[in-house]
Specification:
This protein has 7 helices and 11 strands. The mean pLDDT is 96. The chain has 2 domains: 81 residues, Nucleotidyltransferase, domain 5 (2-Layer Sandwich); 117 residues, 2-Layer Sandwich (Nucleotidyltransferase, domain 5), CATH 3.30.420. By secondary structure, it is α/β, with parallel strands linked by helices. Helix 6 links the parallel strand 10 and strand 11. The chain is 39% helix and 24% strand.
């Protein structure tokens, strides 16, 4: 069994694959203060159900990457592969500094390239990212504060506003503080997605381009958008599997 690991700033997503399909996934909160041994104690009961033969990691949090690599070396005697320089991705990066492109966005592009020749990718995670992909080429992106970050910023900078859960209210014009905050942040995020899609379509002069969304908050935001958006919950993990295959054959 191949273990695919997507390390984000908020969560780590683990996917198990036979090399062809993803059979199971689960999420764990990202902890930057935990050692490899502490991560092992958190994960060993889940990993015990699988015979892990190889590991591929995509990460935007270097300190967690180091802890997980040490975990797999120490407890499973596996040298985990990490998406980065020297790893074949199948995605060409047409940007000013290719090294600055996050591994998660490269995996998103690799996953979307299997489904589409050209697409807009919306990744609703810690940050909200909009990627333009065409002919296996990453042509750039736009990065905005994520939904949860926006809510935290609002609460931390306004003394009288409480912490609230990210739940969609019934109406845009709400009548109590909690629902008002939820409306502004959640409906506002959906409107941003629609607005950014409009601008990207205009910029690339393609009104028919498909839009695919992923990320932990895509299930909350995508249903509120006016555009038709295909949601692929495990797009990053799917792309990581594609990258794994390319490097297995190398």
């Amino acid at each position: 069994m191949i273990l695919l690991v997507d390390v984000g700033n908020s969560n780590i997503v683990f996917g198990f694959s036979d090399g062809k399909t993803i059979s199971n996934t689960f999420r764990l909160k990202s902890f930057t203060d935990k050692t490899s041994d502490e991560y092992y104690l958190l994960l060993r009961s889940v990993f015990a159900s699988y015979e892990i033969e190889d590991v591929m990691i995509s990460s935007v949090v270097p300190i967690i990457t180091s802890a997980l690599k040490k975990l797999f070396q120490s407890y499973y005697h596996i040298d985990a592969k990490v998406v980065g320089p020297g790893v074949k991705t199948g995605i060409q990066l047409k940007v000013d500094d290719p090294k600055s492109v996050g591994a998660d966005m490269i995996c998103d592009a690799a996953g979307a390239a299997v489904l589409y020749n050209e697409a807009i990718i919306v990744d609703l995670g810690t940050a909200t990212k909009y990627v333009y992909l065409k002919n296996n080429t990453f042509y750039g992106c736009s990065i905005a504060p994520g939904v949860a970050i926006s809510m935290k910023a609002l609460v931390s900078n306004a003394a009288l506003l409480p912490n609230v859960e990210l739940i969609c209210p019934k109406k845009v014009i709400a009548t109590n503080t909690v629902a008002c905050m939820q409306s502004g942040v959640i409906f506002g995020a959906a409107s941003q997605v629609d607005g950014m899609i409009t601008r990207i379509k205009e910029e690339i002069n393609n009104q028919d381009i498909p839009v695919v969304a992923t990320g932990g908050l895509s299930s909350l935001i995508v249903p509120l958008c006016k555009y038709e958006i295909v949601r692929k919950e495990n797009l990053t993990i799917d792309g990581l599997l594609e990258i794994y295959r390319k490097n297995l054959a190398a």
